């Protein structure tokens, strides 16, 4: 699990091809932290390995939507 804000401070750094990636976007964050450029680059590079989830909240997603964030993490971790 990684939270990153690199797109705020430098050029976009993308995960390697084949890396399953879920980006959780806070749709009420202002200014928007996730750019259209980042989304397009992730989609182009990762294809089906890229998942975008939009949450109706501000930028503090884990605090605003703890149940939903926990479900995303559990789905990525898979069965034990």
Q: What features would you describe in this structure?
A:
This protein has one domain. Helices cover 34% and strands 15% of the residues. Strands 1-2 form a two-stranded parallel sheet. Strand 1, helix 1 and strand 2 form a beta-alpha-beta unit. 1% of the residues are buried.
Distinct helical segment count: 3
Largest sheet: 2 strands, parallel
* Helix percentage range: 25-40%
| SSE pattern | EHEHH
Q: Rg from C-alpha positions?
A: 13 Å
Q: What best-fitting shape do the alpha-carbon axes yield?
A: flat
Instruction: Give the averaged pLDDT, no decimals.
Output: 88
Which strands sit side by side, in order, in the main sheet? 1-2
How many domains, in number, for the residues? 1
Quaternary assembly: single chain
The overall strand count is 2
Organism: Mycobacterium tuberculosis
Protein name: Lipase lipV
List the SSEs and their pairings:
Elements: E1 21-26, H1 36-46, E2 50-55, H2 61-64, H3 66-77
Parallel strand pairs: 1-2
Q: What's the gist of this structure?
A:
This protein is α+β, with helices and mostly antiparallel strands and 80 residues long. The chain has one domain (20-77).
Task: Provide key terms for this protein.
alpha+beta; Lipase lipV; 80 residues; 2 strands; two-stranded parallel ribbon; AB_hydrolase_fold
């Amino acid at each position: 699990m990684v939270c990153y804000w690199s797109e705020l401070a430098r050029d976009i750094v993308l995960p390697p091809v084949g890396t399953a990636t879920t980006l959780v976007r806070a749709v009420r964050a202002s200014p928007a932290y996730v750019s259209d450029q980042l989304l397009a680059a992730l989609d182009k590079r990762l294809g089906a390995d890229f998942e975008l989830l939009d949450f109706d909240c501000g930028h503090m997603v884990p605090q605003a939507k703890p149940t939903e964030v926990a479900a995303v993490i559990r789905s990525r971790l898979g069965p034990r």
